[in-house]
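Late entry, written up from scratch paper. The run itself happened at the end of the previous shift, but nothing got recorded in the book at the time, so transcribing now.
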Amino acid sequence: MSSRTLGLHHLLKTLILLGFAVYIAYLVRSELILLYIAPRMVDYVKWSALVLYAVAAYQLYLAIRMFRGSSAEDCGCDHDHTPSRSLLKNTVVYGLFALPLALGFLLPDASMGSSLADKKGMNLSSASAVKESRAEAGADRAALPAPSPEAAPPSAGTGTGTPDSAASPAAPDPAAGTGDALDALFPADKFTQHYAKQAKELYNQKLITIREDLYMETLTTLDLYLDQFVGRKLQLTGFVYRQDEMTPKQFVVGRFSIQCCSADAAPFGVLAEYARAETLAADSWVTVTGTIRKTKFNDMDIMQLQVEKVEKAEPAKTPYVYPNAEFGN
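Output as recorded:
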């Protein structure tokens, strides 16, 4: 193979490597990188871009040498590194890298929403993983007993997702606000001790607002101790999601939870009931405030929010939520 042809191969490799490095730099600079990876991974991706720049510079150096007529250096590994002479094979190989790079530049950057939630399946029980861990460890219900009647909050609904017109939202019970009363209200085992601690902090709040940095942890706490929080006020922000099994008055306030990158994203949400739910467009972002109820959906006991107020919201700067490494510390 001629030096000029080898130089062309090195030049193509330079352009592809440089393209990926520039694309990463663009995503980082525009902060669109957060649509694809968790914030804790950003620094690693930045370093990878520097490596790509370095390798691209080396490939450019080799290309210049080949165009000047130098022969390819022997690396001494007894293996022929000469590219294939087949135009079809080279087109396929370079296309495997060039096509996704081109799509990255040409297609709009957008956060994940309802279409992906449909494929992955919306999870309406945030505590399912904790419950499964307890079940696998053989922890029976006796290890996490229900609160005693005197410790339980006043009833605020029928438990079917339909508000009880004769009941008013539960107010924090001063008698259950400290010490042994809270311990009795929120029993715990080794799987739930951190959530029980958070539940005690949330219990006396007049309005439970789900913070971005504790989004999944708070939803899991409310799900684990749902009976104790029935009747309490809750506010959260997310995108509107619907599926066929829902009534016209129902929708989900959803978010995607990410561990590392968009490949492991999982949709979680809270079922909401609102008289004007049909006016809310799918994937629009809303902040909803309402009263926590308990209902059944697809034969599963879940939390439902009886919505009293809906406000349009701007998508969060980081539209996904992430595990909080400091939770429970």
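The chain has nine helices and six strands.
(Scratch paper discarded after transcription.)
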